[in-house]
Amino acid sequence: MSFKTLGLSNALLPELAAQEFLEPYPIQSEAIPAILEMRDVLGIAGTGSGKTASYVLPILTNLQKIQTKRDRHIHVLVLVPTRELAGQVNEVFATFAGSFKKKIRSRAVFGGVSINPQMMGMQHTDILVATPGRLLQLVESKAVHFSDLKTLVLDEADKMLNTAFTEEMNQIIAMLPAKRQNLLYSATLNDNVKQIHQILLHDPLVIKVEAEETDIDLIEQAAYMVAESEKGPMLRYLIHTCEMKQVLVFTSSVTRADRVAEKLRKNGIEARAIHRKKSQGARTDLLTKFKNGKLPVLVSTDILARGIDIEYLPYVVNYELPRSPKMFIHRIGRTGRAQRHGKAISLISPEEEHHFWIIEKKMNKFVDRIKTDDLDLSRV
């Protein structure tokens, strides 16, 4: 099957080829025809499954059929839980919207930055990608209206529907036209998603893409057994000996992320930390530099563990283990994407050995242990 057979606008085909979209992923081949027919869709699929393009491409195709447009009256609303995902989804819309002669404008809005430029930018916007809190602020300021809304998308609905967003989501849904297309995407089908499924979706196409074992098999894993006090020198040793030009390092806290990045810089390795306490402008700048190869080491909390697509990332390092085995899989899943091999390295202290065993059991994969007693880490 090819993208040409799915009913998308022919204007999209050159850009799909340029972006190396050779053939549709399973969720794309099922969702695209349904969305083109304005059906509701519930897609259960993890990161890296191609879900963003599965709704972006048909939404853009459908918008070509809409003739009239009132200022500040959007046609498509995409709700996401984080600023980073908002920027990423908007980037995909912008990339493919340029394929059409008819201009389609998308915009991402989120908190943590001044609202005034976002209010001004709402003029002539067709597609709005938003976090719930900032969207409600824009509504209160009368910067956006929903009467012409045709499609609602909840991306990472499992996160959107947890208790932290419940009140905001209820307010937003109550404002929307009753007659609309609803598209829900989630990594899991938990109770919250089931409940919203019953409320929002009308005769939906349900697509469930199971995570394949080969996804993890594309990732070469190794665990270095090292004392907690030696993790910093061990990380520097690996960066040097493996000649890592691009590596994403995960820590368990904001404080630790800052400390690890600072220590790397003091030892001559260009590194920066990214986490929730950084301004949105700083986070966007760091992520862009990292993706473009201008920043070799990015030290992150779990803010980048889900929903962020970094193509062809060769290395991921777990400086500390996450509490959840599922989060561990999300972390290492930043590498080994697009059918390319990657390497995930975990630094395991004696105190973490039991927890790492639980993680291995959950992912049904044993990771080779590498002892570090004989390594001379005093020079790094």
Quick overview:
With 380 residues, this protein is of the alpha/beta class. The protein has helices spanning 13-18, 26-36, 51-63, 83-97, 115-121, 132-140, 157-160, 166-175, 191-200, 213-217, 231-241, 254-266, 280-291, 325-332, 353-363; strands at residues 41-44, 76-79, 106-109, 127-130, 151-154, 181-186, 205-208, 219-225, 247-250, 271-274, 297-300, 315-318, 342-348, 369-371.
How would you describe the overall organization of this protein?
The protein is α/β, with parallel strands linked by helices and 380 residues long. It has 2 domains: 3-208, Rossmann fold (3-Layer(aba) Sandwich); 213-371, Rossmann fold (3-Layer(aba) Sandwich). It has helices at residues 13-18, 26-36, 51-63, 83-97, 115-121, 132-140, 157-160, 166-175, 191-200, 213-217, 231-241, 254-266, 280-291, 325-332, 353-363; strands at residues 41-44, 76-79, 106-109, 127-130, 151-154, 181-186, 205-208, 219-225, 247-250, 271-274, 297-300, 315-318, 342-348, 369-371. Strands 3-4-2-5-6-1-7 form a 7-stranded parallel β-sheet, sandwiched between helices. β10, α13 (280-291) and β11 form a beta-alpha-beta unit.
CATH superfamily of the largest domain: P-loop containing nucleotide triphosphate hydrolases
Largest sheet: 7 strands, parallel
Q: Helical segment tally?
A: 15
Assign the structural class, choosing from mainly alpha, mainly beta, alpha/beta, alpha+beta, or little secondary structure. Answer: alpha/beta
Q: Which ranges are low-confidence, i.e. pLDDT below 50, for 5 or more consecutive residues?
A: none
CATH-derived topology of the largest domain: Rossmann fold
Distance between the termini: 52 Å
CATH architecture of the largest domain: 3-Layer(aba) Sandwich
What is the residue-mean pLDDT, rounded to a whole number? 88
How many distinct domains? Answer: 2
Count of distinct strands: 14
What assembly state would you assign to the polypeptide chains in this entry? single chain
Categorize the overall geometry: globular
Element string (H = helix, E = strand):
HHEHEHEHEHEHHEHEHEHEHEHEEHEHE
How many whole angstroms does the radius of gyration measure? Answer: 22 Å
Order of strands across the widest beta sheet?
3-4-2-5-6-1-7
